[in-house]
Structures are given as structure tokens and as C-alpha cells.
Amino acid sequence: MRLLITETDPFVRSWIAAEAARRGIELVFVDADDALDRIDCERPDCIALDASSSASREQPLWQSLARDPRLAKIPVLLYASSMRWRAVAQLAANEVTRSLQQPFTPADLVDAAFEACAA
């Protein structure tokens, strides 16, 4: 499975990468600004979006994905790593496959990606 993640924090990237490697998942880390181009080119099996990095655009990234007929079928997980972004994740609930809120572990994120792909 190829999982694309919009995560910029090096610690969180390594935290997720260790679990993904253990489970045989190919990870693609991208900046939210480059995500649409990379998603269109690389066609991941699942997308995990950090709510804080994905909401800073004119149109949130999850809305762009949900409204693009070429990309709308790719499962999207939105994760909120702080209390501030939980409300954003709740607002986006109709446009994403699933929202993960703290506390979650890398295993939780990987499990959610597998479940989303299987659905």
C-alpha cells in the first residue's frame, strides 16, 4: 500500500515511518502545497492529511480532493494533532473517509489507512 501524508514535523515523520516500515507500507511525505500535484502523479492508495497543514489553503486540501472526480475515490484520513484542530476535523467529516484525533499512535494511523483501503 502507498500512503501519502502531509506531515512536515521531522519527529512525527520518523514516528510514522517506523510503523509503516514495520508493516510494509510505502510512505510518501509531502508539503500540503505540493500535495495535489503529487497525488495526481503518484496515485496513492490512501491519503493522510494533517488538519493544520491542510487548512491553510484558500480551499482546504480535503475539499479539493473530495471535489475532484479524478481523486475523490482515494480514501482520505484527516488527523488533528492538537485540540485546536479537532473542530476542523469535525467540520470536514463529510468530506473525508475518517478523522483521527489525539491521542493516536502510528499504529492507529496505519490501521485506519488499511481499513479505509479495504472499504
Briefly characterize the structure.
With 119 residues, the chain is α/β, with parallel strands linked by helices.
* Class computed from helices, strands and strand pairing: alpha/beta
Number of strands: 5
Query: Radius of gyration from the CA trace?
Result: 13 Å
Q: Average pLDDT, to the nearest integer? A: 82
According to CATH, the fold-level topology is Rossmann fold
- Helix percentage: 40-55%
List keywords for this structure.
119 residues, alpha/beta, Rossmann fold, globular
Spell out the blueprint of helices and strands:
Layout: E1 2-6, H1 10-22, E2 26-29, H2 35-42, E3 46-50, H3 51-54, H4 61-67, E4 76-80, H5 86-91, E5 98-101, H6 106-118
Parallel strand pairs: 1-2, 1-3, 3-4, 4-5
Helix pairs in contact: 1-6
Structure description:
It is a single chain. The relative contact order is 0.19. The chain has 119 residues and is of the alpha/beta class. The protein is built from six helices and five strands; from the N terminus they run βαβαβααβαβα. The chain is globular.
